[in-house]
Write a structure and sequence with these properties.
Substrate binds at residues 76, 148. This protein is α+β, with helices and mostly antiparallel strands. The chain has helices spanning 35-39, 50-53, 59-62, 101-122, 160-164, 173-183, and strands spanning 2-3, 9-10, 64-67, 71-75, 85-89, 126-130, 147-152. The chain has a single domain (33-183), classed as HIT family, subunit A. It is 27% helix and 16% strand. Strands 3-4-5-7-6 form a 5-stranded antiparallel β-sheet. Strands 1-2 form a two-stranded antiparallel sheet.
Length: 187
């Protein structure tokens, strides 16, 4: 048994080497919440692409913090951390290799600005930046390219979602959107 910070006890996690199958040296992080994306085939319910629909809505309704010429940035509806942004081209393309040089440049520029703004507004200690290409690679919405910008702090609860099946997100999405959008430099 292990004691939690408040003194309560919980059973120790079972080591992955004792689970069914051949041990391969990899630890496993179980993320059952991702099954919703997998069962939808990596997209939104129906034929609607959420990343094509978002720019047709108000910034507040779509959680958009910045609109560029070829791409935009919005808060992730299912964030890993507060301020988790997605940088998305307006054009409906699935792969990074399908993006034009201008789209790649603007996605990069928006990503850099997002990092500066989030560091300035919430004092992030670091970032995870990445794209999952295709459903097999973990893309929640595989049909429309998007890049994750996930702020990280030395004190964030990196494994809290896995261990306690809980995500600690200290700000509401609307409040985070307003803070980031207000701090975004004018173009």
């Amino acid at each position: 048994m292990t004691r939690d910070y408040d003194g309560s006890e919980y059973p120790d996690a079972e080591p992955s080497t004792s689970l069914a199958g051949v041990p391969d040296g990899f630890g496993r992080l179980w993320t059952p919440h991702r099954i919703a994306y997998i069962e939808q085939g990596g997209g939104a319910p129906g034929d609607e692409c959420v990343f094509c629909t978002a720019p047709t809505l108000s910034d507040e309704d779509a959680l958009i913090v910045h609109r560029g010429e070829l791409a935009y940035a919005l808060l992730n509806l299912f964030p890993y951390n507060s301020g988790h942004l997605l940088v998305v081209p307006y054009r409906h393309i699935a792969g990074y290799d399908e993006a034009t040089e201008a789209e790649v440049a603007e996605i990069g520029a928006i990503t850099q600005t997002a990092m500066r703004v989030i560091r300035g507004t919430s004092h992030a200690d670091g970032f995870n930046i990445g794209m999952n290409q295709g459903a097999i690679a973990g893309a929640g919405i595989a049909a429309h390219l998007h890049q994750h910008v996930v702020p990280r702090w030395a004190s964030d609860a990196n494994f809290f979602p896995i261990i306690a099946r809980t995500k600690a997100i200290p700000t509401l999405l609307g409040e985070a959107r307003a803070t980031i959008a207000e701090a975004w430099p004018a173009t």
